C-alpha cells in the first residue's frame, strides 16, 4: 500500500494499541522500506520476502553512548575481506527479542566519521549475537525493547546494504520515512484518548448534568479536536509528499514534532476529564498517557526534529 494508506492504518491501530503499532512501524518503515529501497536483489529475495510474509525486523542504531548523536557509533564492523567482524552493544531496540532480521549500523573506519559507517543485515542465531535484557518501560509495554550484544559476529560482505560507507546515509534516509509512521502513531494515541474522553463526558454526571454539558469540558474537547486535526493534516501532508516522491524530510519532522507534542497534551487532558478514573489502570486513558511520551523520544527526539526542520529551512 502507499504511505497515506499506511498512516491511516497506523492511526487506527494506535488508538487502541501503541505497542502493536510501533512493531508495525519499525518493521515497515525502517526495515522493509530500507531493504526495498537500498537492498540488493539477493538481499530482497533472502530477507525482504520472508519479512513481508511473516517475519519481524529490528533497526539497530542506538547505543549506550550514541542516541541522538548517531554518528558516534561505538559498534565496530571490522573489514576482514569477505566478511565483517561485528563487535559492540545496541540499546533500546524495538522488536529486539521477537525479530529474526536485524539491520545493524556499525563503524568500519572511524577516521572517516559518518562516511565510514556500514549497515549490515544480521540474522538471529548468528554465532556471537546475544539478545540482552528486556527494558522495563513506562509505556508501550507490550512491545519488546532489548539491548543486543555482538561479540565477534561474522557477517558476510553480501549482507552489507549499499556501497561501503553508505550505512549512515541509509540510517538517516530510512529514519526520515520512519518519522511519518511515529507521527501517525502519536496522532492515533491522541485520537484514541480524545474518543474516550468524549464518550466519558457524555456518560458521567456531575452537578446534576453530564460533563459534556459543562463549558469547561466542552472547551477542553474543542482544543483537543483542533490539535488532532492539525496533526492529522501534517501527517497526511508528509505521507502524500513521500508518495509523490517529493522532498518530505521537513514535512516528516514537522509531523512528528507536532503530533508527539499534542499527544502529550491531549492524553493529559483526557485523563483530566476522567478524573480519578483516568489515573487507574482499569481505564484505557491511563495507558494512552504513558504510551504518548515515547513518541517524543524515539526515531529522533523533539530536539532532533527541531534540528532537522531548521537545517532544512536554512539550507
Ligand atoms: N536525511 C538524510 N541525510 C541526512 C539527514 C537526514 N535527515 N541528516 C543528516 N544527514 C546526512 C548529512 O547530509 C551528512 O551526510 P553528507 O556528509 O554526505 O552530506 C551526514 O548525514 C552527517 O550529517 P551531519 O554532519 O549533519 O551530522 P550531525 O552529527 O551534525 O547530525 C543528526 C546528524 C541529524 C543529528 C543525526 O545524528 C540524527 O538524526 N540523530 C538522531 C538519531 C535518531 O533518530 N535515532 C533514533 C533511533 S532509531 C529508533 O528509535 C527506532 C525504534 O526502535 C523505534
Summed over residues and divided by their number, the pLDDT gives a mean of 97
Specify the number of helices.
Answer: 8
Percent in helix: 40-55%
Largest sheet: 4 strands, antiparallel
Distance between the termini: 32 Å
How would the global form be characterised? elongated
Q: What is the alpha-carbon Rg in Å?
A: 21 Å
Beta-strand percentage range: 15-25%
Subunit arrangement of the protein: single chain
Structural class: alpha+beta
With strands numbered from the N-terminus, the spatial order across the biggest sheet is 2-3-7-6
Ligand identities: acetoacetyl-coenzyme A
Low-confidence stretches: none
Query: What's the helix-strand series?
Result: HHHEEEEEEEHEEHHHH
Task: Give a short summary of the structure.
The protein is an alpha+beta fold. Helix content is 52%, strand content 18%. It has helices at residues 3-16, 18-38, 41-53, 167-203, 215-243, 249-274, 284-293, 302-314, and strands spanning 57-60, 76-79, 83-94, 101-107, 117-123, 129-134, 145-156, 205-206, 209-210.
3D structure, described in words:
The chain is α+β, with helices and mostly antiparallel strands and 315 residues long. Helix content is 52%, strand content 18%. It is built from 8 helices and 9 strands. It has a 4-stranded antiparallel β-sheet, with helices on one face. A 3-stranded mixed β-sheet has the order 1-4-5. A two-stranded antiparallel sheet has the order 8-9. Strand 2 (76-79) and strand 3 (83-94) form a beta hairpin. Helix 1 packs across helix 4 (167-203). The two termini are 32 Å apart. Acetoacetyl-coenzyme A is lined by residues 26, 59, 61-62, 68, 70-71, 94, 114, 168-169, 172-173, 175-176, 249, 298-300, 304, 307-308.
Amino acid at each position: 500500500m502507499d504511505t497515506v494508506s499506511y498512516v491511516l492504518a497506523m492511526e487506527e491501530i494506535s488508538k487502541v494499541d501503541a505497542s502493536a503499532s510501533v512493531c508495525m512501524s519499525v518493521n515497515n518503515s525502517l526495515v522493509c522500506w530500507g531493504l526495498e529501497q537500498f537492498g540488493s536483489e539477493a538481499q530482497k529475495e533472502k530477507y525482504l520476502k520472508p519479512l513481508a510474509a511473516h517475519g519481524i525486523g529490528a533497526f539497530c542504531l542506538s547505543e549506550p553512548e550514541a542516541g541522538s548523536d548517531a554518528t558516534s557509533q561505538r559498534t565496530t564492523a571490522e573489514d576482514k575481506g569477505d566478511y565483517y567482524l561485528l563487535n559492540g552493544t545496541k540499546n533500546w531496540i524495538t522488536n529486539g527479542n521477537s525479530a529474526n532480521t536485524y539491520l545493524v549500523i556499525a563503524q568500519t573506519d572511524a577516521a572517516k566519521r559518518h562516511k565510514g559507517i556500514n549497515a549490515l543485515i544480521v540474522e538471529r542465531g548468528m554465532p556471537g549475537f546475544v539478545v540482552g535484557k528486556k527494558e522495563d518501560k513506562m509505556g508501550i509495554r507490550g512491545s519488546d525493547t532489548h539491548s543486543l550484544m555482538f561479540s565477534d559476529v561474522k557477517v558476510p560482505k553480501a549482507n552489507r546494504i549499499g556501497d561501503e560507507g553508505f550505512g549512515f546515509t541509509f540510517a538517516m534516509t530510512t529514519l526520515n520515512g520512519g518519522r511519518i509512521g511515529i507521527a501517525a502513531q502519536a496522532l492515533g494515541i491522541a485520537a484514541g484518548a480524545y474518543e474516550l474522553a468524549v464518550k466519558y463526558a457524555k456518560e458521567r454526571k456531575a452537578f446534576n448534568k453530564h460533563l459534556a454539558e459543562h463549558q469547561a469540558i466542552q472547551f477542553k474537547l474543542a482544543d483537543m479536536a483542533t490539535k488532532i486535526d492539525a496533526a492529522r493534516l501534517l501527517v497526511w501532508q508528509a505521507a502524500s509528499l513521500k508518495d509523490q516522491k517529493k522532498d518530505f524530510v521537513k514535512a516528516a519532522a514537522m509531523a512528528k514534532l507536532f503530533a508527539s507534542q499534542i499527544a502529550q497534551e491531549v492524553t493529559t487532558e483526557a485523563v483530566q476529564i476522567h478524573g480519578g478514573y483516568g489515573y487507574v489502570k482499569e481505564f484505557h486513558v491511563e495507558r494512552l498517557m504513558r504510551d504518548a511520551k515515547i513518541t517524543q523520544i524515539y526515531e529522533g527526539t523533539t530536539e532532533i526534529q527541531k534540528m532537522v526542520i531548521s537545517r532544512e529551512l536554512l539550507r
